[in-house]
Amino acid sequence: MKVWHIGLLAIEGIAALAVSVGSWGVETRCGTVAGALPDTLIITDRSAMRQAHAVRSGAEVRVNGKPARLEDLKSGQSVTLKLESCDGMSVVTMIDAASG
User: What are the chain's domains?
Assistant: First the structure.
């Protein structure tokens, strides 16, 4: 998906329109919860590497298929994350967790 960034610049009565195009990407990550902060989820992936992921405000969080909150996640829970990225910046938009 392409995202259009539009800016309008006015200098001495002359308006200029700037348009740039960014590329969106979607990816999935799996692992176990290592910790959660108000806007960050830390997971341990399948290769035992810890990863910190920014979580978008309003991201969908589910535990065993039921609506939940980020702070409901517990260390050791299996999670699947949906991340969306644009121009190298990625953010978690969905978390699906299973209780052990």
Answer: 24-98 (2.40.50.320)
Structure tokens at 77: 């829970």
Distance of CA 96 to the CA centre of its chain: 13
How many CB atoms are closer than 10 A to CB 43? Answer: 25
Q: Residue 86's pLDDT band (boundaries 50, 70, 90)?
A: confident
Report H helices in the chain: none
CA 78, 99, 72, 28 torsion: positive or negative?
Answer: positive
| Residue bearing tokens 């960034």 | 5
Q: Specify the DSSP class assigned to residue 49.
A: -
Q: Which pair of tokens denotes residue 17?
A: 């329109």
The per-residue pLDDT for range 40-82, each reduced to its tens digit, is: 999 999 899 999 999 999 999 999 999 999 999 999 999 999 9
Alpha carbon 23 to chain centroid, angstroms = 15
Beta-carbon count within 10 A of 72 CB: 16
